[in-house]
Design goal:
Largest interface: A-B, 38 and 40 residues
CATH architecture of chain A: 3-Layer(aba) Sandwich
CATH superfamily of chain A: Thiamin diphosphate (ThDP)-binding fold, Pyr/PP domains
Order of helices and strands of chain B: HEHEHEHEHEHEHEHEEHEEHEHEH
CATH topology of the largest domain in chain B: Rossmann fold
Number of domains of chain A: 1
Radius of gyration of chain A: 17 Å
Radius of gyration of chain B: 21 Å
Largest sheet of chain B: 7 strands, mixed
Number of helices of chain B: 12
Strand content of chain B: 15-25%
Strand order of the largest sheet of chain A: 2-1-3-4-8-7-9
Helix content of chain B: 40-55%
Distance between the termini of chain A: 31 Å
Strand order of the largest sheet of chain B: 2-1-3-4-6-5-11
Shape of chain B: globular
Number of helices of chain A: 9
Structural class of chain A: alpha/beta
Oligomer: heterodimer
Strand content of chain A: 15-25%
CATH superfamily of the largest domain in chain B: Thiamin diphosphate (ThDP)-binding fold, Pyr/PP domains
CATH class of the largest domain in chain B: Alpha Beta
Number of domains of chain B: 2
Chain lengths: ~250, ~350
């Protein structure tokens, strides 16, 4: 009998603790498929953040080191400079990468650090219970914007990918989503290209993934998938934001 | 050679492969030395980070990769590094952190001070942890202790603080580098470099199980007990017949030594205890000295921080006086001499036994 679908080798045999409908487990699986397909298990090191994905090391069967909140890009920088043979990825949420870790992210990208950031944007702080994130949409209700995010008071959602694209050290940046099989396939292609960018030593690469958080969005998983299409991706348009790799698009 | 540069040279000779820093006075000669000399060495790296927070987290990353790494700063910058130091301590990762301290609180000033004693010796960041703290009092010791700091960090898997001050960092003295850089450094066995030929592993601090976290704390505590037993160091000066012992560390001890020599020349039996490791603190040595000497003067360039460790060590076993100048004011030896003389005669220590 031919096996057409199975657990990736680099994904540990352990049930995910994520909520039903959460995007983390999808991105984890996609990453592990790529680690297998690109034969990276023996040389990749992951840097998960505090947040819902803090236990990523229980799922990824690769070397991993926990980062302090927001410091992923700095930890990755130190690690990669100390041991350039490794392939290094950070796995960060929106609060981590685009609020408390903004400086670390911008400067790592600007130095063209040969690291890959997997940026999970779900427009809320998930683990702490759904507070406003830098990427929370205008009028979106969260536990700290109970009347909806008012740009006059709380500012606007940050498009950090577009900001980073301005930096010369950033080589490949794409925004994808994991709310449909087609989008998941696109996410996989984007992360493959981001990792390849690092393998080729070209500079900083990042994939921003719009990821559903039905629990904190107070939606069903189906509604959360639809919300990404109808609302979230209007503020955060999907697609390649920057690509100066010179490589042909995987499509 | 100035003190800050001596640290840089000693670090390179100790096999430091990565330096991450951020400019702040009075330690700039160190970051500049590393920019000039470390950055060009094969397999080494130097980064001027975007912040102190980033710098310490880069050290964390390099330490995870299994190489010797360091950062340096001065007081306000060291405050920013505390987050990373707490993580290093929790993950049992070696690192060397230099604090060329200056007067505070706040932005304070740039003149030498010793007001970071509490921060350095009590962990400094959040959580139940300690760091080894070395307090040099000369440029030669800066060089020697830098080497020792890397050795201790690797031996006990712990961040080590070199607590100097703006004066010692800036002053020029002859220095001999007694240790040569090893040809090739071994990679630490716990390093993460990809799961090649072994199962994957991870380094983390977070746990949602208090019992597991308690065990981690106990494990750290047991190591700290071992460090206390093995690594506590001090220097004594003319204590054998002393009726008054001055307790001072770092540059203050050097000032005190001048005052003590003057006191001796004037017939006063005064000695000195200089803690070299501020943590672990040489409490036992103090208790031993208190068997023959009853009077102690703690002299620091702060408002009385090490004083509390002396009080804890001695309890009611000694009469403890304090003299200190905060804010980056540097006492002269003659000023300290006057304090010694007043204390000596007021307590009738000149009386024949």
């Amino acid at each position: 009998m031919k096996v057409v679908y199975s657990r990736p080798k680099s994904l540990k045999r352990r049930p995910f603790h994520y909520c039903p409908g959460c995007g983390h487990s999808i991105v984890h699986r996609v990453m592990c498929e790529l680690i297998d397909e690109m034969n990276l298990q023996e040389r990749i090191v992951g840097i998960p953040p505090p947040g819902c994905s803090v236990f990523a090391y229980y799922y990824f069967d690769v070397d991993m080191v926990e980062s302090a909140h927001g410091r992923g890009a700095a930890v990755a920088t130190g690690f990669k400079r100390a041991y350039p043979e490794a392939i290094v990825f950070t796995y960060q949420g929106d609060g981590d990468l685009a609020a408390i870790g903004t400086a670390e992210t911008i400067h790592a990208a600007n130095r063209g650090e040969k690291i890959t950031a997997i940026f999970i944007n779900n427009a809320v702080y998930g683990m702490t219970g759904g507070q406003m994130a830098p990427t929370t949409l205008e009028n979106q209700m969260t536990t700290t914007t109970p009347y909806g995010r008012d740009p006059k008071i709380e500012g606007y959602p940050i498009r950090i990918s577009e900001m980073l694209a301005l930096l010369k050290g950033a080589v490949y940046i794409e925004r994808t989503a994991v709310n449909s099989p087609a989008h998941i396939q696109r996410t996989k292609r984007a992360i493959r290209k981001a990792l390849q960018t690092q393998i080729d030593g070209l500079g900083f690469s990042m994939v921003e993934v719009l990821s559903p958080c039905p629990t904190n969005w107070r939606m069903t998983p189906i509604e959360s998938w639809q919300w990404i299409d109808k609302v979230m991706s209007k503020e955060f348009p999907l697609g390649v934001i920057k690509d100066i790799t010179g490589a042909k698009d995987a499509d | 050679m100035n003190g800050n540069s001596a640290i840089g040279e000693a670090a390179i000779r100790a096999g430091c492969q990565c330096y991450f820093g951020y400019p702040i006075t009075p330690q700039n000669e160190l970051i500049e030395y590393m920019a000039k000399y470390l950055s060009r060495r094969k397999g080494c790296c130097f980064i001027q980070a975007e912040s102190e927070i980033s710098a310490i987290n880069m050290v964390y990353g390099a330490s995870v990769a299994g190489v010797r790494a360091m950062t340096s700063s001065s007081s306000p910058g060291i405050s920013l590094k505390q987050e990373g130091i707490s993580y290093l301590a929790a993950c049992e990762l070696p690192a060397v952190i230099v604090n060329m301290s200056r007067g505070g609180p706040g932005l304070g000033g740039i003149s030498a001070a010793q007001s970071d004693y509490f921060q350095a010796t009590r962990g400094g960041g959040h959580g139940d942890y300690r760091t080894i703290v070395l307090a040099p009092s000369s440029v030669q010791e800066l060089a020697d202790f830098t080497h020792r700091a890397f050795e201790l960090a690797d031996k006990y898997l712990i961040p080590v603080i070199i607590l100097g001050d703006g004066m010692i960092g800036q002053m020029m003295e002859p220095v001999e580098f007694k240790h040569e850089a090893p040809e090739e450094l071994p990679v630490r066995s716990r390093a993460l470099r990809g799961a090649k030929g072994r199962p994957s592993r991870f380094i983390k601090t977070f746990t949602s199980n208090p019992a597991e976290l308690e065990e981690i704390n106990w494990s750290l505590f047991r190591r700290y007990q071992l460090i206390k037993k093995e690594e506590t160091t001090h220097e004594t000066f003319m204590v054998e017949d002393a009726r008054l012992i001055v307790v001072s560390f770092g540059i203050a001890a050097r000032i005190a030594k001048g005052a003590i020599k003057n006191a001796r020349a004037n017939g006063m039996k005064v000695g000195m205890l200089r803690p070299i490791t501020l943590w672990p603190f040489p409490s036992e040595k103090l208790q031993e000295l208190a068997k023959t000497t009853k009077h102690f003067l703690v002299f620091e360039m702060n408002m009385g921080q090490m004083l509390e460790d002396v009080q804890l060590a001695l309890g009611d076993k000694g009469e403890i006086a304090f003299y200190g100048r905060p804010g980056g004011v540097i006492s002269t030896p003659s000023e300290v001499f006057r304090v010694i003389a007043r204390l000596y005669y007021q307590n009738g220590l000149d009386a024949k036994k």
